[in-house]
Structures are given as C-alpha cells and as structure tokens.
Amino acid sequence: MAGAEPRAPRFPWPALALLALAGLATLAVSVAVGSVAMSPGQLWGALTGGGSGLHHDLIFTLRGPRALSAFATGGLLALAGGLMQVLLRNPLADPYVLGLSGGAAVGALGAMLAGAGTALVSGSAFAGALVSTLLVFGLAHGVGGWTPTRLLLTGVVVAAGWGAVVTFLLTLGPAERLPGMLYWLMGDLTYAGNPGLPWAVLVVVCLLTVPAGRSLNVLARGPLQAAALGVSVKPLEALVYVLASLLTAVAVTTAGSVGFVGLVVPHLLRLVLGNDQRVILPACVLGGGALLTLADTLARTLMAPQQLPVGVITALLGVPCFLYLLYRSR
Amino acid sequence: MSVLEARDLIIDVPGRASGAALNLSIEPGQRWAVLGPNGAGKTTLLHTLAGLRAPRAGQVLFEGRRVDDWRRRALAQRLAVVFQERQDGFPATVLETALIGRHPWLAPWRTESAEDLALARDALARLDLSALSARLVSTLSGGERQRVAIATALTQTPSVWLADEPTNHLDLHHQVAVMRLLAEQAGQGRSVLMCLHDLNLAARWCDQVLLLYPDGRLCHGPAATMLVPEALERLYGQPLAVAEVDGAPVFVPVRTKPAGAGSTDFCKGDD
After folding, report:
1. What is the domain range of residue A277?
2. How many domains does chain A have?
3. pLDDT tens readout for residues A234-264
C-alpha cells in the first residue's frame, strides 16, 4: 500500500508561481506589442526609466493602463465565477448567472442611447448591476428564505428579462451607436482607463476570501454538513454573494460583459489543480488575469487597426483549451 | 452528568401534530438507538439535537448550555454528525474528505498539520479505506461513501456522535465493524446516538433505545425494556418473532400476527 499512499495535500506553490509568471509575461507582451513594437531590451529600458519618450508614453499612458485593466478584470471575473460556483454548488454558475451583467448592460446601453460619455456609461452600468443584484437577492429570498436552486432560478429568469430589455434598446439604437453598444455587450477594453479601482477591489476581496478558502471547501459539501463542521453557513454565504457581486459589478463597469472567463477559468484550473478553494481562488485571479490580458492583446493586434471585442478572443482561446482538459480528465 | 439533553422538546415535522414532548438525557458512555418507521422524525430529531434545525418547542442543551448559544465551531469540536444524505458536488479525494473533519479544529489561516493528516489516515485505516485514499469520492460505491462519512466524523474526534443510519449501504462485515467502532467510542467515555432500521443491530450494540411513533408519541429507556415484541410490533405495525441468538434477541418479521399481541399498551416505560 506504501506506493499507493497519496502524499500530504501540499500547497502547490510551484503552480501558483508559474501562473504568476505567466501573468507577468502576458503583461510584458501586452505593453510591448502593437502598432509600434518594442524589443525586450527597449521594454526593459523604458521600464527602468531610460529609453525613448515614445516608448515611455506607450507603456505608461496607453498600453500599460489598458493591460493592467485587462488583467484586473480577468482576475475579478474568474474569482467571481469560482465563488459563485461554490455558493450555488453548481458547476454551470458564472459571474453573470444571477442576472448581473443584464442589469449592467441595460444601464450601460441606456446611457449610450442617451449619448452619455464614458464615465456616465460606467456609472450607469455599475448602478444597473447593483439594482439587479438587489432585485435577485430580494426576490429569491421570497417568503421561504433562499436556497441555491431558488437563487439560481431567480437569477436566470431576471437575466432573461434584462435580455429582452437589451434587445429592445438595441432596436431603438441609431445605426452609428450600434457598434459601440455591441462591443460593450461582448466586452471591450478600449475605454478602460484607470486600473486603480479594479485592482483595489481585487486585492481587498482576495484578502477577504482566500483565508475563507477552507470554509468554502466545507461549504461545497452542502450547508448541513458545513454547519455540522463548524461553519456559520448563512453569514458566509451572504459574504460570498456580496463579494462576488461586487467583483462582477466592477469588472462589468471596467470592460463590459466579457463572457467565458468567469465560467471556464475556475473549471480549467480545477481540472489541473484539484478543488481546494485555498489554491483555486488565488489561481483564478492569476489565470483569469493572464487569459484576459493575452486575449486583449490579441484583440487589438490581430486585425489592427481594427479592434475585435475581447470576449470573442477569450472564447476562441478558452473553448478548445477547456474541452481538451475535460476530455482528458477522469 | 448528561452531555446532551432534550427538555420538553417537540421536533418540527411539517404537517404533523406536536405529539409528546421529549425529555431525554444522554450521558457519556451511552449508546442510544433511535427506532421508528419511515417518516417518524428520526432524522429531524437528530438534526434538532445537533442544533441544525430549530425545534417547534422546548430546548436542546449541550453540556448544560443551549445548543443555539454555542459557537458552531466550538460545538463542532465536540459533536459530530454523520448524515444520511451527502452532497458531492465537486470532486474530492477520500483523504481530502476525511481531512475536512479537522476543519473545526483549525484557525482560518492554518493548513492541516502532520497530526491532522495522521488522524485522517488512522480514521481511513480504521474503516478499511486506506487503499482508496487517493480515489475520488464520486467514484466510490454507496457503502464505501458511507464509510468515508464515518471516517470524516472519526477524524473530527467528537465527544458526541449523532449518526443517521450509519450502517446504510454497508455489507454485513462492515456493519459490524462500524457498530464495533461506535461501541468502542462509547467505551472511551463518548456518547453515541444513532438512528437505525435494523432492530438486531440495536439489540446487540445499543444500551438505550428511543422509540419514535409516526403520530409523534415516543418512549425511551434501557434496551432490555424497550426491545420487546409488543412495543416493536406496535411501532412498525409488523408482526415479529423473537429468538435469542448469540446472547442477544433477534427479531424476525413474520407473515401472520401471533395471538394476543398488539393489544398491550405501547409504552410502559414512558415518562
């Protein structure tokens, strides 16, 4: 039996370090690639204070903030997806499953339709996300208290309602505004300016959720079992719900509703790293960030000067990757 | 000194009249069997005693304090529940599953130590699961999963065990192994309460018996006074034959009702 005995479940630092390196690499590539390409030497020079003024501007005012926004958004979405999947104990859950992106979309498209500027569109999207969150939570609580199934069903139905409103807004939209609206719906980082807010939220939520990882592992086995093992189930579930909603709202506000990252990155990492939330949650942040940074780099360079919606690229990269891993898994 | 006590407890079974209140005191070293037909409220009682479900009336005291007043984590260090139904939503290995029994003992930021791992390994070995420890729980048979659940509770090192049909799905050998394990836990000064369907396991391994009738009536007392054919026939609405085998009564369902049975008072030892 000695040979079959598994080792102590050891914390997989190497895997996380590898993901962090991948994240840094995608960030470096993202700032170096574009209409004006930089060699690694030029990139290093500009980062360390030397180099040409053009390179400096490219990195610090154009590509850098956008790459950092992409990374933070990817991290936010993947973390939110991982949390939602545990909260609802449903592998199909993603950050948008509770209708949050629909609410945000109605807010954003409504603002665009009214001809509002970028800042107002973002604010309106955030407000829409907030309204949707409260709506779903309140309705799902209903008379009998909420259960994962009820929350999920309420979310799906509310999302369908928002979907109808979005379609309605699109039919009202004048032709010249339609591309912008469609890009927003598929996710677009063109106007993602200051990466400060998404990063701040990402860091704070990480600090709150990673220590709760073991409790989330227990929660994944059902609320009764979790309570019997000493978890305060209701407060933990409420915390996870609020944090996941906040993460998603900030992500949607930054980059529109980028699909796929939140659903697939957590699963992809679970297939490779197992299902310990203490590992999966930080891995989601790094993996989601790397994926979206890479996807955004491709989105703005593949058909330059034409920019593609980043959601198209995340799906094109992620679908084969995920299906391959799923096919290989036990 | 009682470790777990029910005071005027009426469990909340939806759509049922309240029935009799339960006054029960579980002491260290006791092995309780809860018997009753389907729907009598065995699982509801077990969850209520564990503080996982609010009673309709009365209270549950653990070590003299209301069970609701305990912090869940402190309670989980002392009381383990083996559930009848389990959710295996996300894949986890047998060893990982046993290790979550250490959850109440670990501060949020701490990971499992070598001692925690040793406890989990010992528990798995005790339930003949060592060879399966790297397997995913979702790939196991029903009986193997049942043993994993018991190993998880053993890893939790509680002083009180509440086990809902712990022999479910188990083969004969493992039924006896699990009952022996629970008896051994009681022998070390812990308390065990289990819901059972097998009268013969109750007769052989338990010293206290609580009979739950579907209409909410109940009675309890030492096994010898409770496990008599009249009470049990009344409990299940099923004629029984009884014989003594290997030092314990054995109850066998029969097709025809023996003459004279069924008219006696259902519970002589009721309080």
Report:
1. 67-328
2. 1
3. 899 889 988 988 899 889 888 888 888 898 8
* Whether B87 and A91 lie within 8 Å, measured CB to CB: no
Q: Give the closest of B100, B117, B156 to A217, CB-based.
A: B100
Q: What is the mean pLDDT of residues B68-87?
A: 93
CA–chain centroid gap for B133, Å, is 25
Query: What are B245's strand-pairing partners?
Result: B248
| R_g of chain B, CA atoms, integer Å | 19
**Better pLDDT: B260 or A227:** A227
- Contact B107/A at CB under 8 A: no
In a domain, A166, yes or no: yes
| A220 vs B contacts (CB less than 8 Å) | 89-90
Residues of A with CB under 8 A from a CB of B: 1, 4-6, 8-9, 11, 86, 89-91, 211-212, 214-215, 217-218, 220-222, 224-225, 227-232, 270, 274-276, 278, 330
> Cβ–Cβ of A6/B134 closer than 8 Å?
yes
Structure tokens belonging to residue B117: 């791992």
For chain A, say whether B112 makes contact (Cβ under 8 Å): yes
Please report residues of A whose CB lies closer than 8 A to that of B114.
8
CB contact under 8 A, B103 and A229: yes
Q: What is the pLDDT of residues A104-154, one digit of tens each?
A: 899 989 998 888 777 788 888 889 988 998 888 888 877 766 777 888 888
What global pTM score does this model have? 0.87
Q: Is residue A109 part of a domain?
A: yes
> Domain holding A191: CATH number?
1.10.3470.10
Domains of chain B (ranges; CATH) run 1-78+158-227 (3.40.50.300), 90-157 (no CATH)
The interface pTM score, or ipTM, of the predicted complex is 0.90
Does residue A38 fall inside a structural domain?
no
